[in-house]
Automatic annotation (TrEMBL):
GO terms for cellular component: endoplasmic reticulum membrane; plasma membrane. Pfam families: Motile_Sperm. It is found in: Membrane. Belongs to the VAMP-associated protein (VAP) (TC 9.B.17) family. Its main location: membrane. InterPro entries: Ig-like_fold, MSP_dom, PapD-like_sf, VAP. It is a single-pass type IV membrane protein. GO terms for biological process: endoplasmic reticulum membrane organization; endoplasmic reticulum-plasma membrane tethering; sperm individualization. The chain crosses the membrane at residues 196-216. GO terms for molecular function: FFAT motif binding. This is MSP domain-containing protein. Residues 1-118 form the MSP domain.
């Protein structure tokens, strides 16, 4: 239903004492259908995903940002995975979170991504050199910068989700207005038809009265 890159394994390169990011590309190959998606992870405390839900238009390509929070070495003791879920979104959707709560599981397509964490030896040497030569002040500044970056990205994606929500609301209202216009046009057409037959009946009555009067005057 969706083409996801990478398709099997997401490689995240350290060091992981700072924020690390990676992008997932998602493509909708359909020429007609919109697709709703949701990206889930087995370790939400570790991974920051934006956007984690959304809509992909026909033949549209979008990017999902994956961030790894700065954490300790115990991350290597666990296997981390992502699961991409997708479903047809042919009808207007007011709230994507409600859409995923109410959708039938049988209509959901999914694919899984394994996570590989790579912390190279060179990164470790660079970290050691930095610790010995510069001290903790630079690391503190880098951590603060990473935290600010994450907060800004989070705000940007929240605004993007709000924008998508507003677009969905506009589509819903537009569809309702179109349906109301069609219904009004049908009512007006029906009224015109009724008015025509009423007019014809009135003409027939008047003609009958005139003919009756003429006949009465002629033969009486």
């Amino acid at each position: 239903m969706l083409i996801v890159e990478p398709s099997d394994e997401l490689v995240l390169e350290g060091p992981f004492n700072r924020a690390v990011s990676k992008k997932i590309m998602v493509y909708n190959p359909s020429k007609q259908k919109r697709i709703a998606f949701k990206l889930k992870t087995t370790t939400p405390r570790l991974f920051f995903v934006r956007p984690n839900v959304g809509l992909v238009k026909p033949e549209e390509r979008i990017t999902i940002d994956i961030f790894v929070h700065p954490i300790s070495n115990d991350i290597y003791a666990h296997r981390h995975k992502f699961m991409m879920q997708a479903a047809d979104a042919t009808d207007p959707i007011g709230d994507l979170h409600e859409f995923w709560k109410n959708i039938s599981p049988s209509t959901i397509w999914d694919t899984k991504l394994k996570v590989k964490l790579v912390d190279s030896q060179m990164d470790g040497l660079q970290k050691m050199y930095s610790d010995n030569s510069v001290g903790n002040g630079e690391h503190q500044e880098k951590d603060n910068t990473d935290s600010m970056t994450l907060n800004l990205i989070d705000k940007v994606h929240v605004l993007e989700e709000d924008r998508l929500h507003l677009i969905q609301q506009v589509e819903t209202i537009t569809k309702q207005k179109d349906e109301e216009r069609e219904l009004l046009a049908m009512k007006l057409q029906k009224q015109k038809g009724n008015g025509f037959w009423i007019f014809m009946a009135t003409v027939a009555v008047v003609l009958a009265a005139l003919i009756g009067g003429w006949v009465a005057k002629k033969f009486m």
